[in-house]
Amino acid sequence: MEPRPRSFYLLTAFFVLFVVFLYGPTITIGILSFQGPQGGLTFPMRGVSTYWFHNLFQQQAVGDIWGAFRRSFALGLMVMVATVVISVMAGLAFRKRFFGSGALFYLTIASLVIPSILISLGVGLIFNQIGARVHWSTSGLGAQLTWTLPFGLLIMFAVFNRFDKRFEEAARDQGATPWQTIRHVVLPIIAPSILGVALFGFSLSYDEFARTLLTAGSYNTLPLEIFGMTTNVTRPVIYALGTLTTVFSFLIIAGFLGTAWLLRKRREMAARRAG
């Protein structure tokens, strides 16, 4: 067996350091969230308990944690639905070139390179100028869509570029209407990609801070609430909150992956029955 080159060990060490850098802060917060009742925000730990997790469900002296969570969850769902609907419709529309399609595409993608805080400021100013209320469910929704829609569009463009149009032609040959073709042929085939767009929409919205900072109005979303807590909370309860939100995010991802797996199994079973 040939000895491994020195570069292999260097790359392995670099990868290990990268993983530690990536997940080290999250793991550290997870560990510190299990401090005892007299614990602080740093090591060494003063006992081990779940005291601060229980403390989260009691009335807090500062902030509105669960109200902020409900707002972030509701906003994430709204952004997810809007991102899926607009991305799928845009993907279908861009299958054929039309006047201004190139400019529209680049204008949409450009929002990814514009500083997020400037978009938040711009959306907030527009709402103020037209006399509309700056609120997390309106201006916040609009600001976050500038972040999620480009990802959804890129996914849908990639999907439809590889889509075999013969499936649609076969459906039309069988007498299917355009809507029946989309509903019973196109959407089932691209369903896993739609789930991916939905996951992008929800997860990017749920933890978005900069684009919500100046568009949430007087009610904080969860990222804004956590940021506010960092300035006046000196107890590990903030770590417990961070741990729970991280676990919640992983559960959301697991739910989407499980749904994608079930859809794939369902398609395989349908293919076996048809064969």
TrEMBL record:
Belongs to the binding-protein-dependent transport system permease family. CysTW subfamily. It comes from the Bacteria. This is ABC transporter permease. Residues 69-256 form the ABC transmembrane type-1 domain. Keywords: Cell membrane, Membrane, Transmembrane, Transmembrane helix, Transport. The chain crosses the membrane at residues 7-34, 73-92, 104-127, 147-164, 185-206, 237-263. GO terms for cellular component: plasma membrane. CDD domains: TM_PBP2. InterPro entries: Bact_Polyamine_Transport, MetI-like, MetI-like_sf. GO terms for biological process: transmembrane transport. It is a multi-pass membrane protein. PANTHER family: PUTRESCINE TRANSPORT SYSTEM PERMEASE PROTEIN POTI. The keyword Cell membrane applies. It is found in: Cell membrane. Its main location: membrane.
